[in-house]
């Protein structure tokens, strides 16, 4: 394994470990050992493990947006199809990890929201940004008359993310992507499907 030399590399190693083991179970010693860096180096980059937690959230969101932005911005697809495809893409990543790891935002939300206020706020901001991005597409879908005009798009976006996170948790426990596939089917083929008048 290559020797780690900078903060970004430590964050990447730490992110992979935290996704696999959880934040509390990932000690600084483990990160240092995996990154093959001297014992004192961690605190050259981070004042605390909490600050490190904020850095891995930012890295996770940045990586996720690199994958999702081209889908969400693809004007060749109808808005609702882009929303669906964004979730399907996350599901494919989850399946490629043998239905483990899940979403860092959901994982840390469960593990840390009651203990680290700065982490809770960063998670909330990340989820709000996700909600905002979906809301904008859902509003476009509403303008195109593909979803009912009376639906509150912000509430729908928030509920899509909440339901997806719940399905992701269920899939981790079940070691099967079926709950996530059920989420896609129910929302996009049943609840939000166009019906003839």
TrEMBL record:
<dbReference type="Pfam" id="PF00440">
    <property type="entry name" value="TetR_N"/>
</dbReference>
<dbReference type="Pfam" id="PF16925">
    <property type="entry name" value="TetR_C_13"/>
</dbReference>
<dbReference type="InterPro" id="IPR001647">
    <property type="entry name" value="HTH_TetR"/>
</dbReference>
<protein>
    <submittedName>
        <fullName>TetR/AcrR family transcriptional regulator</fullName>
    </submittedName>
</protein>
<keyword id="KW-0804">Transcription</keyword>
<feature type="domain" description="HTH tetR-type">
    <location>
        <begin position="4"/>
        <end position="64"/>
    </location>
</feature>
<dbReference type="InterPro" id="IPR011075">
    <property type="entry name" value="TetR_C"/>
</dbReference>
<keyword id="KW-0805">Transcription regulation</keyword>
<keyword id="KW-0238">DNA-binding</keyword>
<feature type="DNA-binding region" description="H-T-H motif">
    <location>
        <begin position="27"/>
        <end position="46"/>
    </location>
</feature>
């Amino acid at each position: 394994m290559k020797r780690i030399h900078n903060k970004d590399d430590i964050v990447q190693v730490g992110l992979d470990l935290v996704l696999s083991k959880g934040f509390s179970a990932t000690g600084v010693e483990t990160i240092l050992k995996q990154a093959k860096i001297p014992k004192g180096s961690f605190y050259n980059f981070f004042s605390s493990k909490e600050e490190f937690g904020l850095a891995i959230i930012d890295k996770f969101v940045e990586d996720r947006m690199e994958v999702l932005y081209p889908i969400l911005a693809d004007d060749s697809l109808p808005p609702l199809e882009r929303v669906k495809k964004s979730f399907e893409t996350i599901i494919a990543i989850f399946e490629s990890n043998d239905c483990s790891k899940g979403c860092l935002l959901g994982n840390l939300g469960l593990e840390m929201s009651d203990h680290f206020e700065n982490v809770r706020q960063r998670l909330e901001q990340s989820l709000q940004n996700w909600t905002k991005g979906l809301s904008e597409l859902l509003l476009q879908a509403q303008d195109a008359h593909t979803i009912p005009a009376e639906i509150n798009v912000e509430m729908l976006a928030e509920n899509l993310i909440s339901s997806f996170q719940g399905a992701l948790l269920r899939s981790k426990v079940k070691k099967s992507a079926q709950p996530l596939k059920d989420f896609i089917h129910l929302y996009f083929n049943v609840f939000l499907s166009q019906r003839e008048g």
